[in-house]
């Protein structure tokens, strides 16, 4: 299983762009990279997923370099409501019964957005 | 389409009692996962089930814990003879497929917070 490493915490101010980088040096060929967001007292919520290069949706962008050993979640113009824990996960997209059941969430990155 | 529903949201049990946690997956989802989250910790996988089958229970303690996902009805995580160390948030997730690929993300419920007194 590919292990991920993220900063424990980050601080930002409203309106700034926030980039959270995740290292996954042992990522395998079939692994996808997925990011989840978790607010206090709630379950994690899917943000974005990608395999290579760049993926963008209405919430965030995900940048994945060619070697795929890291990925960066980019949150444009954060607001106070973006204060949450962000998890980077790596999972196998093809191996039977080894998808979400094998995902390890780790401790994630606690993002604190201040006014 | 309702999301993943877990109940109860909060559960208090005395040491030695049984705790039953319920999870109704999203409509059309046949894959259910249970995770446990201790305070200030990340989520840890416990068990993965498909309808009427346990696929992977490698993360679940071998004693006192059991899970089922019957043909009809919600998935149940059962903890017998609870101890204080079982106090945690238990999250259920469901997905349409198990493989991590586009459009198959896992959706999580709000969790059940178990407190053992």
Q: What structural keywords apply?
A:
A: mainly beta; 47% strand; globular; B: mainly beta; 7-stranded mixed sheet; 4-stranded antiparallel sheet
Structure commentary:
Chain A has 115 residues and is mostly beta strands. Chain A contains no helices and 9 strands. Chain A starts with 8 loop residues before the first strand and ends with a strand. Helices cover 0% and strands 47% of the residues of chain A. The model of chain A has no long low-confidence stretch (mean pLDDT 88). In chain A, the strands form 2 sheets. Chain A has a 5-stranded mixed β-sheet, with no helix packed on it. Chain A has a 4-stranded antiparallel β-sheet with strand order 2-7-6-5, with no helix packed on it. Helices cover 0% and strands 48% of the residues of chain B. In chain B, strands 2, 4, 5, 6, 9, 10 and 11 form a 7-stranded mixed β-sheet that branches. A 4-stranded antiparallel β-sheet of chain B has the order 1-3-8-7, with no helix packed on it. The N and C termini of chain B lie far apart (36 Å). Chain B has no helices and 11 strands. The mean pLDDT of chain B is 90. By secondary structure, chain B is mainly beta.
Percentage of residues in helical conformation of chain B:
under 10%
- How would you characterize the largest beta sheet of chain B? 7 strands, mixed
Secondary structure category of chain B:
mainly beta
Number of strands of chain B: 11
> How many H/I helices of chain B?
0
What is the overall silhouette of chain A? globular
Number of E-state strands of chain A: 9
Low-confidence stretches of chain A: none
Measured between the Cα atoms of the first and last residue of chain B, the distance is 36 Å
Through-space gap between termini of chain A:
39 Å
Order of helices and strands of chain B: EEEEEEEEEEE
Percent of residues in β-strands of chain B: over 45%
Main sheet specs of chain A: 5 strands, mixed
- Net shape of chain B: globular
In angstroms, what is the radius of gyration of chain A? 14 Å
Mean pLDDT of chain A, rounded to whole units?
Answer: 88
Please trace the helix and strand order of chain A, writing H or E for each element.
EEEEEEEEE
Kindly name the structural category of chain A: mainly beta
Mean pLDDT of chain B: 90
């Amino acid at each position: 299983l590919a292990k991920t490493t993220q900063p424990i915490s980050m601080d930002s101010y409203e309106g700034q762009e926030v980039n959270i980088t995740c290292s996954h040096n042992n990522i395998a060929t079939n692994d996808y990279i997925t990011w989840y967001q978790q607010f206090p007292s709630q379950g994690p919520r899917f943000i974005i997923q990608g395999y290579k290069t760049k993926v963008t949706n209405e919430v965030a962008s995900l940048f994945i370099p060619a070697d795929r050993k890291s990925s960066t979640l980019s949150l444009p113009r954060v607001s106070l409501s973006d204060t949450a824990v962000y998890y980077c996960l790596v999972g196998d997209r093809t191996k039977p019964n080894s998808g979400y059941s094998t995902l390890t969430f780790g401790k994630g990155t606690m993002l604190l957005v201040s006014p | 389409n309702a999301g993943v529903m877990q109940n109860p949201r909060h559960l208090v049990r005395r040491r030695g009692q049984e705790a039953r946690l319920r999870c109704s997956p999203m409509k059309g989802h046949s894959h259910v996962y249970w995770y446990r989250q201790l305070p200030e910790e990340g989520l840890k996988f416990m068990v993965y089930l498909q309808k009427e089958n346990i696929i992977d229970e490698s993360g679940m303690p071998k004693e006192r814990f059991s899970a089922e996902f019957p043909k009809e009805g919600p998935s149940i995580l059962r903890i017998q003879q609870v101890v204080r160390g079982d106090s945690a948030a238990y999250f259920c997730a469901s997905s349409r497929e198990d493989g991590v690929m586009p459009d198959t993300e896992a959706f999580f419920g709000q969790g059940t917070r178990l407190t053992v007194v």
